[in-house]
Specification:
globular, binds flavin-adenine dinucleotide, 4-stranded antiparallel β-sheet, 7-stranded mixed β-sheet, 13 helices, alpha/beta
């Protein structure tokens, strides 16, 4: 059993930023855990396009207006205001000064701002097309200098420890739900520990892996969302799953993201026979329309004409040297699978990319459960509404990571800070009697079933009928998984499967409940039309 002031679950940009803020006070003890073997591994690491700064002719009002427009009427204005006013300064303080991250500059030594879809200004800072990797190297590198941060890898949180659920006191039933840490599975020692904390922060990232086609790495299976849901936290906007329009569609590299910045630099979408089509869907923005519009336009072209993919042509719009300098990773990955993007168009399809909904939080990252915070992609601050504006998510992780740290710092300084429970107050995890090891092949098979259900029935185009079918099939799978879970020794894969099916149900149920098309939630049987369908 471990005890700490703050337990942070997840070491992506959000969790790492919160840890940095809290670690400034040397008396603070912080445990930062990640299920991955490498602390850099996360969605954050794979971010390509970049992070929002403040462009040359830019200001907070312009950014707020762009966020609200992309969010299709469902973005919370106060959240957008916080991001737009605090984000660019925090980026300088934390990423540039503390993390030592060197964003790209032009030949005159000025910051090179990139352009992305639905942004009215060039304001995206980047490090080639490997921005996330540079950010994670910077943040984890700095964190290792703080002796009061214990960074544990291959440590998978299983469930939150909450009162009244885990309390020995029957009168706790009358108190509001509160969080006191988590049960954590040690993947190396194959044992489960109680980690007790005055405050717990969920920073577990997104859910992309519950869909068959996704840009997300394997860890994005919604663990934090499922844990919060089981604990009784409020979850909102779960129907808003953003599909990125352009993931590579070549065997051996499926799901590899072709950044929106490629279209920002002039890249044009074409049908396989070379016809540009975005003007038919958005006369104003064309290829740089909001992501939901572009993704549905591609889907519609593919459905109508039977294409297996569409093409993205950057070769006709940038010189080969510029392409290689600006997009070195995309160039290399496409080359590896036989596509030379300096000479030929890239085959692309839409793929699940970002979860706009999540655990409902306030402006400090506080959830509806006492002493539990949620930050980054697992949370819903309201910022993204029904559709995220490109490159806002890294900044949201930075801003709310910092804010949650500030809020906890001030609450830990107060006399009435929450008590950390004692060893005997929280029951130890009981695996006695479990002899059966989980079968990885079975777990993978069930994961694939979830991914197929979600892709076919809860994808880009939804209907009540398809969603009801998804829910029936997912409920059956959830019952099977729960039975299996109760009889089998824990493993990271089993924890992920149980969470994935729970999260899939949360998304499918929210999608069936909301019969109005808006942003990235599109119902073919919509009762009220959104303002920009197709
Ligand atoms: C390919 C790709 C490109 C992108 N490009 C951009 C971009 O250019 N700009 C932008 O703003 N956004 C981009 N995004 C989105 C952005 O990267 C993410 O939204 C953001 O990084 C999420 O950060 P996070 O800290 O919330 O979660 P993550 O970075 O995903 O971190 C989650 C952490 O939680 C850990 N974890 C998960 N479950 C458990 C568990 N049960 N126990 C312990 N640890 C756990 C993981 O191991 C990881 O450490 C991109 C995403 C992808 C996939």
């Amino acid at each position: 059993m471990k005890k700490t002031d703050v337990l942070i679950i997840g070491s992506g940009i959000a969790g790492a930023t919160a840890a940095l803020k809290l670690a400034e006070n040397p008396h603070r003890r912080i445990i930062l855990i990640t299920r991955a073997a490498d602390p850099h591994e996360s969605n954050s690491r794979y971010a390509q396009g970049g992070i929002i700064g403040r462009g040359v002719d830019d200001n907070a009002d312009l950014l707020v207006a762009d966020i609200l427009a992309a969010g299709a009427g469902a973005s919370l204005p106060s959240a957008a205001r916080i991001l737009a006013e605090e984000g660019p300064d925090l980026l300088q303080q934390i990423l540039v000064k503390l993390g030592g991250i060197k964003f790209d500059h032009n030949e005159d030594g000025e910051i090179e701002y990139g352009q992305e879809g639905a942004h009215s200004r060039r304001r995206i800072l980047h490090v080639g097309d490997g921005t996330g990797n540079a950010i994670m190297s910077g943040l984890i590198g700095v964190l290792k200098n703080y002796p009061n941060v214990e960074l544990l890898t291959e440590a998978t949180a299983v469930d939150l420890i909450t009162y009244p659920h885990h309390s020995p006191n029957p009168l706790a039933a009358y108190d509001p739900i509160s969080c006191h840490g988590a049960y954590v599975f040690d993947n190396k020692g194959k044992s489960i520990h109680r980690t007790l904390a005055a405050f717990t922060i969920l920073a577990t990232g997104g859910i992309g892996r519950i869909f068959r086609n996704t840009t997300n790495p394997p860890g994005a299976r919604g663990d934090g969302l499922a844990m919060a849901s089981r604990a009784g936290a409020r979850i909102v906007n779960a129907e808003y799953v953003q599909f990125h329009p352009t993931a590579l569609s070549v065997p051996g590299a499926e799901g590899f993201l072709i950044s929106e910045a490629v279209r920002g630099e002039g890249g044009v979408l074409l049908t396989p026979d070379g016809r540009p089509f975005m003007e038919n869907y958005s006369a104003e923005w064309k290829d740089l329309a909001p992501r939901d519009v572009v993704a549905r336009a591609i889907h519609s072209e593919m459905e109508t004409h039977g294409y297996s993919h569409v093409m993205l042509d950057v070769a006709s719009h940038m010189t080969a040297i510029k392409i290689k300098n600006r997009f070195p990773n995309i160039y290399a990955e496409c080359k590896r699978v036989g596509v030379d993007i300096t000479r030929e168009p890239i085959p692309v399809v839409p793929a699940a990319h970002y979860f706009c909904g999540g655990v409902a939080v306030d402006e400090w990252g506080r959830t509806s459960i006492q002493n539990l915070y949620a930050i980054g992609e697992v949370s819903c601050t309201g910022l993204h509404g029904a559709n995220r504006l490109a490159s806002t998510s890294l900044l949201e992780g930075l801003v709310w990571g910092n804010r949650s740290g500030n809020d906890i710092n001030s609450r830990l300084s107060l006399d009435h800070k929450p008590l950390i429970p004692g060893r005997d107050d929280i029951p130890a995890w009981d695996e006695s009697g479990l002899t059966k090891d989980s079968d990885p092949a079975l777990i993978q098979g069930d994961m694939q079933t979830i991914q197929n259900i979600m892709w076919h029935y809860v994808g880009l185009m939804r209907s009540g009928e398809l969603l009801s079918r998804a829910i029936r099939e997912l409920r059956h799978l959830q019952n099977e998984t729960e039975t299996f879970y109760r009889r089998t020794k824990l493993s990271d894969g089993l924890i992920g499967l149980r969470n994935a099916v729970e999260v899939a149900l949360i998304v499918a149920q929210a999608a069936r409940h909301n019969r109005q098309s808006r942003g990235c939630h599109y119902r073919v049987d919509s009762v009220v039309g959104g303002d920009r369908l197709l």
